[in-house]
Amino acid sequence: MFRSAKAGLKRPKLGFVIAGFAIWACDSVCCDGDCNGHRSVGVSQKSCDVLRDMGPKIQWQQSYVTDDKIYCVYIAESEKDVLEHAKKGGFPANRVSIVRAVIDPATSE
Question: What total of structural domains would you count in the chain?
Fold first, then answer.
């Protein structure tokens, strides 16, 4: 996800609020157990519609899809904003956690 500092790019620091925003992760269960295929297009479109209405206080970064769950990553002002997005979109949000750090191969350098 991040290039090494040796490649000339600085690694972003996480675990603190950047300009009033923090990085959050949300754990959602797929409603019908099928997180792949055409359903993901509809969910993505609905999510983007809700985010557009909510304004700049929340931004969806990406989601990781497993067989039975979706893990979504947001930059948001608060956990409340992530939960509001889930409620307005009709997405179950089982748990919302703040991301305190990101590690990757560049961490070892």
Answer: 1
Burial class (CB in 10 A: 0-12, 13-18, 19+), 58: buried
Q: Cβ distance 4 to 105 under 8 Å? A: yes
**pLDDT band per the 50, 70, 90 thresholds, residue 94:** confident
Which CATH number covers residue 59? 3.30.70.3090
For residue 68, the one-letter residue type is D
Q: Where are the beta strands (DSSP E) in 2-100?
A: 22-29, 58-65, 69-76, 95-98
Instruction: Please state, in angstroms and rounded to a whole number, the distance separating the CA atoms of residues 25 and 38.
Output: 23
Contact assessment for residue 19 and residue 66, using Cβ atoms and an 8 Å cutoff: no
* Model pTM above 0.90: no
DSSP structural state of residue 13: P
